[in-house]
Amino acid sequence: MRIIQPASDEKNSATSLLIIADDLSGAADCAIGFASAGHRTVVTLDSTRAPNTHAAIDVIATDTDTRRSSPEAAARHTVDAWRTLHTPGRRLYKKIDSTLRGNWAAEVAALQPFAGLAIVAPAFPATGRTTRGARVFVNGSPLETTDTWQLENAGQRADIAERLGNAGLSTAVLALDAARDTRESLVRAVAMHAMRGIQALIVDTQTSKDLALLAQASAAMDEALFWVGSAGLAREMALLPDLFGASANGHAASHVSPASPAPSALQQSGPILVLVGTLSAVSDAQCAMLRDAAGIAELVVAPAVLRAGPEHMQWPALQARIGAHLASQADLLLRIGRDDLFDPAQGAHLSTALGHLIAPHFGKIGGLIATGGETARAALHATGIDSLELVAEVEPGVAIGRPLDARTREGHAHRPCIVTKAGAFGTAQSLHAAWRHLRDSTYV
């Protein structure tokens, strides 16, 4: 492997960070730690329309929407995003799913020739995801035994090294023990593997302390490298006090949000619309808790209606019913049902239709909670929103943002609060916590 050394003004002095994710909730989940640490952080649905040159933005996360693409298309779109958004001094973090969903291996392999050594650590111990022997464990059980893996990857092995090897990368595994290892020993180990020509170094991490040590050591290294991980490693990186050094102009990178609106400008009245497109036991439990604890009305949309779209005979009446409910200022839980024709591959199509179903009523809402990356992306795309500025976090995996550009509602700026949440994440209380946070705060 030829390690590509960065230019002298980039070496060991990041001025900003680029996060490339394959779905929207993952992009927000990975980026929110930086917003919480005081860095101005933006999530964009379209890298070609991102605010790439804005000097006040410390972290930009882009969603390539490639989780269900072919590996070849996913690799191509990922590299296109990197080429569009990479600038001198901007380092790279490739966000992957902590349960290895999607085309992450092909995407990492495509980025490696441009970005150098891949430091691979998908663990997120705070949510029960750990790695040992280059294998993922969920709450102590092998990933292959979980419902999430069986739903989409039945019969396949959840082996990180094997998947990266099949994508054409030379790999090695580094066991990490924060109680024994030091930053200096880890720097030496990573440098040794880079000299050996390793292209992807998988770092076994089982605790947040492990991830913190990895973040500290790798961020200070001179070698050209990029990070491959979930929100777990990203959160530890966000806590580094010197992650963003001096900018090209010699000024310290922004640790505040000077261009962010004042709290009073964030207030937005209106009902909260909760969209749930993820068909999983986790989301079912979260919806039940929201209904029971909040007394919120629920409307289940039959998949047949969404498959046919506006041509379905029930579409106009359903759309009118949603509009009337929101016009009454009542919160609404809108979710996709399940039928005998259910196919996980239809998720994007169903979510897109759901987005079009609510688009005419977007101006009525004060807050939107979207569970599932495909659902969140579809809702924002249908309502013409390209980018969100992250402003707060409810709990790990639940990020709050605002449209970067205001829309018009009755002649006034309309920037409803938008919460994104990964569908398979969280406890039974997570969805209710997000709703409660919006309802009790000044956001809506």
CATH class of the largest domain: Alpha Beta
Beta-sheet strand percentage? 15-25%
The tally of beta strands, per DSSP, is 20
Distance between the termini: 52 Å
Quickly count the domains. 2
CATH architecture name of the largest domain: 3-Layer(aba) Sandwich
The oligomeric state is: single chain
Gyration radius (Cα, Å) is 21 Å
How many helix segments?
Answer: 15
Uncertain residue ranges? 1-11, 246-267
Residues in helix, %? 25-40%
What general form does the structure show?
globular
Q: What is the mean predicted local confidence, pLDDT?
A: 86
Which fold name is given in CATH as the topology of the largest domain? Answer: Rossmann fold
CATH superfamily grouping of the largest domain: Putative sugar-binding, N-terminal domain
Task: Please list the strands of the largest sheet in the order they lie side by side.
Answer: 9-10-5-11-4-1-3-2-16-17-20-15-12-14-13
Major sheet attributes:
15 strands, mixed
Structural class: alpha/beta
How would you portray this structure in words?
It is a single chain. The chain has 444 residues and is α/β, with parallel strands linked by helices. It folds into 2 domains: 16-238, Putative sugar-binding, N-terminal domain (Rossmann fold, 3-Layer(aba) Sandwich), CATH 3.40.50; 263-440, Molybdenum Cofactor Biosythetic Enzyme, Chain A, CATH 3.40.980.20. It has 15 helices and 20 strands. The protein has a 15-stranded mixed sheet, sandwiched between helices. It has a 3-stranded antiparallel sheet with strand order 6-7-8, with no helix packed on it. Helix 1 (24-36) runs parallel beside helix 8 (231-238). It is globular and about 65 Å long. The termini are far apart. The model is unreliable at 1-11 and 246-267 (pLDDT under 50).
